[in-house]
Input
Amino acid sequence: MTRQEIFDKLMEILAAAEGSDEIVKSCTESSRLRADLGLNSVNILYMVIAIEEAFGIYFDDVGVNAFETVGDTVDYIEGKLS
Output
């Protein structure tokens, strides 16, 4: 799976979590999960669960606060898939 495919799938997850495609229209890898996208701890926890299901991976050695940006999240997923 390419980095772009991971990013696109992550955007689908974020759109579903927020119930709107608006969040992903201006989202980039440098977008901050909390400050720019307005996600709180509960939103991030749900995002992690959705990522685990969508990608078939598990967040075993990392806390939800370890991800500052969308790019950090993509990096982690990419590393777990390789």
About this structure: Residues 3-81 form a domain with the Non-ribosomal Peptide Synthetase Peptidyl Carrier Protein; Chain A fold (CATH 1.10.1200.10).
